[in-house]
Amino acid sequence: MKLHFDEDTEAFRREFAAWLDEHAPPESETTERSHSSADVPAWARRWQCTMFDAGWLVPGNPPEYGGRNASLLEQFVHRQELARRGIDPTFNPQGLTIITPSLLGYGSEEQKQRWAVPILRAEITAALGMSEPDAGSDLAGLRTRAMLDGDHFVVNGQKVWTSGAHDADIIFAFVRTDPHAPKHKGISCLVIPTDLPGVTRRPFGSIVAPDDLDFNEVFFDDVQVPAENLIGDLHEGWRVATGSLGHERAMIWLGFDGRFQHLIEAGAKALHERGLDEDPLVLDAFGTAVIDSTALRLLGYRTLAKTQRGMEPVEQSILKLFGSEAVQAAHLAMLETLGVEALDPTPPSSPPSHLQSEVFTASWFDIYLRSFAGTIAGGTSQIQRNIVAQHVLGLPR
Phi, psi (5° rounding) for residue 52? Predict the structure, then answer.
């Protein structure tokens, strides 16, 4: 086992780090903040476009799509360096990490130029239309219909939890195009411009940020979508959907690792300031967090190594399940240790970078509440347990 990277990969890391040192926008230019996951301030659009033009936005992509054909290990250290510095490459994460890879994987060349490249360059933003009131984790249970009528689809239905939809230019929506097909069949994927007649977007707050509107419910009432907006083959949207979620889950564990590192660094300081770092019960709980963090990283490295060798790692769902629940448990332990002080709305530490989103600017209590999103987004813990049971342990459905 090697717990280090080869010299070529480390040279790639150094090149990227040097580029960030030279080109990252100064703090004085980044005062405007994002209001949703599809609201990209002007400075952030310029920053994302700069990364695209230099090939550092998605280094695994070809140069024409904001990359430099980087290897898997090079892509990994790129993500590591961004995480270490607390830098978000985009303020429209679902557009960059889920929707664009799906467009590049299943779209035509015209569709790639029409939507993928503008999303990558932050010229437009996108929202992901998957969940519905009666089909959250069970995506195959979606009911939004799209009936082909000549040169267009007529779409009727509702989506919910559609992050950033009220600010997005397009919605990457999954719809049922054959109502008589079996559950996982007869689904298609459409790009739906949000300015089409019949599209209604209603943003709503959350318990974490009632005034920071990101979630939306979206209604489609006889929306006429051009047939050319179909992504992939008709009725074959399930392939696109599983590919989309695969992009989301591929390195999602790095996000949990980053939250662990934030908790360990900020938590150690908070415990020391309160004289709690010699309490054996407190140290036991804190030690559990440190051990879980190490286990997560080593399991992530094993998954990376298997992928590098062309294997299909079974650990991906285990990483998602363990990472999300361990982070949540660690933050709950911190709340229980700090007691009423955990309700202090002051963030436990300053954000690591002025290019960072709001996740590191929350209080201990808010961070704990936000951790529940990790057990839901990208496939709930229940779904991950089903996957592990059936595909890892070989248990019956």
Answer: -60, -50
